[in-house]
Amino acid sequence: MMGGGGKPFGDSVFAGHAAAGAAAISSSTVAVYPLDTVKTLLQLSAAGSNQKMGLNQVVDRLMAVSGPAGLYSGIGWSILGKLPGLGARFGAYELLTAFYKDGKEDNYVSYSEAMLAGIVAGAVESVLSTPFELLKLRNQVGSVKLMKAADPANITKETFPLLSKLLPGYVPDIRVWNSTVNLLSNLSPKHPDIMGALKQHPWMLTGSGKPPLPSDVQGPSRVIALEGWGALWRGLRPGITRDCVFGGMFFSTWQFIHTAILTWRAVNMNPQPRKLEEAGPVSPFASSLAAGFSGIVAAAASHTFDTAKSRSECTVIPKVWAWPHFK
């Protein structure tokens, strides 16, 4: 196809398709994002606790802390991740199916070929979208956590100099530090300044020896400073498994339904077409129904891996815990 100026694929056509795709992804994300937020909080509510919170408890907690705006916490990261992720998913699928069709008399793609192409497309999507999903999840978790009263920045830097390097902007809870010092005060004192000595150890950032909460490590700068660049791809393995299962089930189910619709249409045609594709295109409404049902099947098959990915991304692992001699 030639576009304006004689350039292949035409700049105006490509720009129009890109703009339409971006608008579709953004609008669909805005429409369903509150459901994604509630789903994520439900997945994480049982992690590390003996009693899982129900739907009403999660929603009430969210509304009490952040209000309706909390339903859209992290939506910017979600859109930024879906734009390259979905583009890569469908782009990889189209390239692979074009390879399968090459040399065939018709343009038929078998169910196994559609599944294999969907698996590869899902893996590509996961690699591109995982960093944005981690940042999105951290913001969603922050929507149900009460904000702490911030101390003056200069006091934080003077009393906790290590924080400015590992976790900029984080305000430690002085009560936790005092509790730790009180517990250690029963031991034989061997250091004139116990609290001052503890502040020099990276694993005592919070004063209790526990890592900071995910809601305290939200932005890219905080994640990279405290956990390293590799943390942006935390949960990649369950993420790849989830997206491979989703992509394979989605595209194979859609191909099955699409073929069934064309076959049913061809049977009722007189004369019957020689090729299945000659039965005519599927209506947009039928395609939407087929895609919706395929999405339900794929989501049900991959949901367990989605839960594993969410819980993995919710885990904060400071890089300095493995490097005791961090400077």
UniProtKB/TrEMBL annotation:
Solcar repeats: 10-99, 109-260
A GO CC term assigned to this protein in UniProt: membrane
Protein name listed in UniProt: Uncharacterized protein
InterPro entries assigned to the protein according to its UniProt record, in alphabetical order: MCP_transmembrane
UniProt key word Transmembrane helix: yes
Domain of life (superkingdom): Eukaryota
Pfam families given in the database record: Mito_carr (PF00153)
Keywords, comma-separated and alphabetical: Membrane, Repeat, Transmembrane, Transmembrane helix, Transport
Keyword Membrane included in the entry's annotation: yes
Family stated for the protein in its record: Belongs to the mitochondrial carrier (TC 2.A.29) family.
PANTHER family: S-ADENOSYLMETHIONINE MITOCHONDRIAL CARRIER PROTEIN (PTHR45667)
PROSITE patterns associated with the record: SOLCAR
